[in-house]
Every structure is written in structure tokens, then in C-alpha cells.
Amino acid sequence: MKSMLRSIVCVITLLIDFGVVAQAPFPSKPIRLVVPFTPGGVTDTSGRLIAEQLSKRLGQQVVVDNKAGASGNIGTQMVASAEPDGYTLLLAFDGTMVINPHVFDKVPFPFDTVKDFAPIGKIGDAVLILVSHPSFAAKTLKEVIALSQTQKGGLSYGTSGTGGTPHIGGELLKQKTNANLIHVPYKGGGQAMTDVLGGNIPLVYTAIAGAIQHVKSGKLHAVAVSSAQRASSLPQVPTFIESGVADFEINSWVGLMAPAKTSKAVLDKLNAELNAVLMDAEVKERLNALGISATPGSVQKFGDEIKRDLTRYGQVVKSAGIKAE
Questions:
Q1: Count of Cβ atoms closer than 10 Å to residue 170 Cβ
Q2: pTM to 2 decimal places
Q3: At a CB cut-off of 8 Å and minimum separation 6, what does 194 contact?
Q4: SS3 for 159?
Q5: Which of 113, 196, 259, 282 has the most CB atoms at less than 10 Å from its CB?
């Protein structure tokens, strides 16, 4: 009997060595999607939508796991340290992946965006918009810039906080146009919106999702959007480029990433399924309601964009001397 068992073990070992015994197809168990923020925000909501749709396509549950803290660094580092088998994924946000590494002198829960992660695909871009109180004299971007240059103390603009994508956008606008703008960081976009609606601050640079209802109702004036093309939800609002600022495109993006060394086969499988989800008309509509334009694309394209943003945002951060509070 022992001899027979030894023979069976030897045969199985040989079969595995020669690749005859195939591994179970991916995925063969539930997948954890780590969201490095608290539940309820636009980023979290978009992640839950994608998880729901991927679950249907993959035949396995994609479970959202919120691991908030340290400006997204805690949950992000958890994924960097996870087994690279495709069963722990990250909802990647541009602020965490391409801005945090530059604005923190010493990143808590450190990770390397390029070395520690493998891109899967971008979910979409959240269009940013510069809005003002209707009583504010300057209506166009050119007028805002010109007025700021006459203000000795500068012209204030609010954002959701130091080091966020809107802050980076505001600093880039200053560098490109010599606008005399003064950043006023808030603890979240909601507080900034409350102050501009009340006329306590003239300008706010924010994601379009948080401002669109107020623009449509006339409670806020839309100065410009910083996407390459006009936003489909506010087609009457010009872009920064149309308003005279050449090569000015700043979007906040969200996507999926996996730990480094995840196999190409798994990455390609997840990318294909993500793209299929993003091309669904209902999913596009639901993302659009969150202010996110779906952007299906390749693993390589997303990886190239991450590297590009790491470089260009790093330059803006260094020039402006931005540091996390």
C-alpha cells in the first residue's frame, strides 16, 4: 500500500512538473477590492459599481473592502504587500498614486507606485471645474486671470484640500499664466462648496459632480472645465484650453491596479473584463451621473498615463513647494 501511494505521488509530481495538471482557471474564488477611503464618496461609489459588474462577468464575487486612513496610503500599501495572485486588487485614485508620493516628505505606510503595482486599467476620468459665485465680477477664465493680477493680496480659490488634484490644477494654472491665485484648502469639497455658495470665497476648483446641480440651478457660475473636451453634462461650459491656456488638461482619475508581479494572463483577463463593463451603456450612464467619463483602454495605456502623471505632477509640486498638512 505504501509503495502504491509513493507511486501515485511520484506520478502527480511528474504531471505537475510537465504542466499536465492544469491550475484552476482564474478566478476560482472571491476577489477583494481594497478601497483606501471611507464608504460613500464618489471614488468608493464608482468602485462598488465596478465590483458589482465584474462579479457578474467573472462568476466570482468581487468584495469591496474599505481601508481608509493616511490620505489613502494605508489601504494602498496593504495591496502593495498582498500576494500577487489577482485576488487582492486596489481601487487606485490619482491623488494617492501620483500626488501623495510627492507631497509627503515621508509617506506613511510607504509604497512605490511603479515598482509595487501592476496596472489593470483606468475606470474613468472625473472632470474638474472652476466655479464662482454669481455675483463675482469675472465671468471668463481670461477675466479671472486678469482680475487676479490686479489684486495685491491675490484672488482666493478653494479646494477639497492640500495636495489634491484641484490644488495641483490651480498651481499649474498659476505657473502657466502668472495668475495671482491664493489656495484656500478645506477639509473636503463639501465645505468649499458651502462657502462659495454663501459668497464667502469667490472661486472653487472641484470635481464637476459636486458642482453640477448648483451650476444648472444658477446658484453657481461655471468658468471653465479642465478636461481636453467639454463635459457632456455641461456642454455650454468652455475648457481651459478653449479659454486660452494651451495644453491644459487636468482630470482626476480612478482605476484598478494589482500587486507587482501579478501574472500577465491575470492582468489581461481583468483588463478585458473591465473594458467590457465600461463599454456597457448602463454602466457609462451610472458613472456619468457620478461625474466620471468611462475610459476603457489597455494595460499599457494606463501604465503610461500613471508614469506621465507622476512626472508632471511632481514638477508642479516641487515648483509650488506643496507639502501635505
A1: 27
A2: 0.85
A3: none
A4: strand
A5: 196
